[in-house]
Design goal:
The chain has about 550 residues and is α/β, with parallel strands linked by helices. The chain folds into two domains: about 40-170 and about 195-310 and about 545-550, Aldehyde Dehydrogenase, Chain A, domain 1, CATH 3.40.605; about 315-505, Aldehyde Dehydrogenase, Chain A, domain 2 (3-Layer(aba) Sandwich). About 45% of the residues lie in helices and about 20% in strands. It contains 20 helices and 22 strands. The strands form six sheets. It has a seven-stranded mixed beta sheet with strand order 15-18-19-12-10-20-21, with helices on both faces. It has a five-stranded parallel beta sheet with strand order 7-6-5-8-9, sandwiched between helices. A three-stranded antiparallel beta sheet has the order 3-4-22, with no helix packed on it.
Length: about 550
């Protein structure tokens, strides 16, 4: 018998299944924070709900609670003052072990139905979540709403759809009959059981706790695994709200809420390492630094580890039919959320002899200046600029800006802006520095933040060679090319396929290289060091469960 939550959300699931097959535009959760979409008063109620969480213990009961933890400071200069349960790991894992048998026995339709109910309820708290994302990551409010809520929810739904698409391929049973010539055929009945891998650990990041956290969380939950969510110490609240909703839905559906738990911890302790090496943990989803990701891949050998790590994202400029459009598009990609995105571009390769444009041949310096002017025009109005830039997430970003400034001639210096609403926020505009191709020791590493290098090469062939090597050796999630030459575009496609990186070609409109659309774009290929697996396809979910069979002889 089908689970009632599965039946309730089956129309939504069917739409998601159609979307992952067609790969066109589709979104289940509207990205506009308009009262026409989410209802009159929804924005005000969400802000009030967020405010009500500040300066008090977060309302959540967890097994093994021993005191509290939490010291989140908004990048906009506000201490959140929220404390969270600090749990004893042995007691937590014991509670999860007691919760697992009934959840495993419930089967795929229950797993998927519960996961879908959790997502749809999270969507109803999007305004509250948007403020939580804003004041833990530094994203501006509209971006916090869109990327942190509907877009993240779409990514969670995408993972559920892929999970169900794989799960439904497994029949519950089969009748097997093998002819034996003149003798009676061999007859067997075979039963197939989907068995979850074990406890899944989601290690959250500071900058995109929900957008990066939801795919792994919902992929694991929809395939029957219990989930431990370990947020970044600076961005606990968005994932705490998520876990709170999940536990409410599980309890209402008759399951032990400890199928989904939260492990908050203080910055600098070894909780992540302890969790990652627990023998009960069989799946790990991680977004963060290369050093921490590689440590997990090397040491958490008992688990299937999915990592999204640092990379060097690049733009190859060969020629341009619309240089102003190129400059506008690249400027927005450099400025959006102060370049604090794993997909944001860093290295911009331009031939030292210049490029052909519709306005005639332009020198390397003219192209670099056009890019600088694009940033200046985009951020010319400080009140508008802060809504694009958001706030600097930590002091390391500011230190990197200062260090990068000394690497070469400055095309565009980074400026400090005042936020009209949050005077304590640190707001920085992008820095552009000129380098030479030979300076690869300077630019072939990630400079996380609003830092761009305009790099003079011997020509587009060298630009593509550097891009290939950078992606293969250091990792990349995005690559872009601007050219009016079909051969150059074909060469760029070949480089992208060889290096295993997503390529954008001649973006001059309102689509940007650092944006990835759920249900359409494949985020992370697993073919270069930035991610050890594709993060939005069937392979991302298929290894989260096993099929165990039993068989017996039958007479008919």
């Amino acid at each position: 018998m089908s689970h009632p939550l599965f039946e309730r959300h089956k129309p939504l699931l069917d739409q998601a299944l159609a979307a992952i097959a067609a790969r066109g535009y589709w979104s289940a959760f509207p990205e506009s924070p308009s009262p026409k979409v989410y209802g009159e008063g929804a924005a005000e109620a969400g802000k009030a709900a967020f405010d009500a969480l500040l300066n008090k213990p977060f309302p959540m009961q967890l097994p093994g609670s021993q005191g509290t933890v939490g010291a989140e400071m908004s990048p906009y200069g506000i201490p959140l003052g929220i404390s969270y349960p600090k749990v004893d790991l042995d007691q937590l894992f014991a509670a999860i072990a007691r919760a697992e048998p009934a959840w495993r026995k419930a089967g795929p339709e229950a797993w998927v139905g519960v996961a879908l109910e959790i997502l749809t309820r999270i969507n109803k708290r999007s305004f509250e979540l948007a403020h939580a994302v804003m004041h833990t990551t530094g994203q501006a409010f509209v971006m916090s709403f869109q990327a942190g809520c509907p877009h993240a929810q779409d990514r969670g739904l995408e993972a559920i759809a892929y999970a169900w698409d794989e799960l439904r391929r497994i029949p519950a049973k089969a009748y097997w009959e093998k002819p034996q010539g003149k003798n009676e055929p061999l007859k067997m009945e075979k039963h197939y059981r989907i068995v979850p891998r074990g406890i899944a650990l989601v290690i959250g990041c500071n900058t995109f706790p929900t957008w990066n956290g939801y795919p792994g969380m919902f992929a694991s939950l929809a395939t029957g695994n219990a989930v431990i969510v370990k947020p970044h110490p600076n961005a606990i609240l968005p994932l705490a709200i998520t876990v709170q909703v999940a536990r409410e839905v599980l309890a209402e559906a008759g399951f032990d809420p400890n199928i989904v738990t939260l492990v908050a911890h203080a910055a600098g302790d070894d909780t992540a390492q302890k969790l990652s090496l627990r023998p009960e943990v069989k799946l790990i989803d991680f977004t963060g630094s290369t050093a921490n990701g590689e440590w997990l891949e090397k040491n958490a050998r008992q688990a299937q580890v999915y990592t999204e790590k640092a990379g060097v994202n690049q733009i190859v400029v060969d020629s341009a039919a619309d240089l102003k459009g190129v400059a506008r598009n690249v400027a927005f990609s450099l400025a959006l959320y102060t370049g604090q995105m794993c997909t944001a571009p860093q290295n911009i390769y331009v031939p030292r002899d210049g490029i052909a444009t519709a306005e005639g041949h332009l020198s390397f310096d003219q192209v670099a200046q056009a890019l600088a002017e694009g940033v200046q025009k985009l951020l010319g109005d400080p009140a508008r600029a802060v809504e694009i830039l958001g706030a600097v997430v930590n002091d390391g970003v500011a230190r990197r800006i200062d260090a990068a400034r000394a690497l070469g001639p400055v095309v565009l210096d980074s400026q400090t802006l005042a936020h009209p609403q949050f005077p304590q926020a640190t707001i920085r505009t992008p820095l552009l520095v000129k380098l030479e191709a030979k300076d690869d020791a300077k630019y072939l590493k990630e400079w996380f933040g609003p830092i761009g290098f305009v790099i003079a090469t011997d020509g587009t062939a060298q630009s593509l060679d550097i891009a290939r090597r950078a992606a293969k050796e250091h990792g990349a999630l995005t690559l872009a090319v601007y050219s009016t030459d079909p051969k150059v575009i074909a060469d760029a496609i070949a480089v992208a396929e060889d290096a295993g990186v997503a390529l954008s070609i001649n973006l001059t409109g309102a689509v940007f290289v650092n944006q990835s659309a759920a249900f359409s774009d494949f985020h992370g290929t697993g073919a270069n060091p930035a991610a050890n697996a594709s993060l939005t396809d069937a392979a991302f979910v298929a290894n989260r469960f096993r099929v165990v069979q039993h068989r017996m002889h039958v007479s008919a």
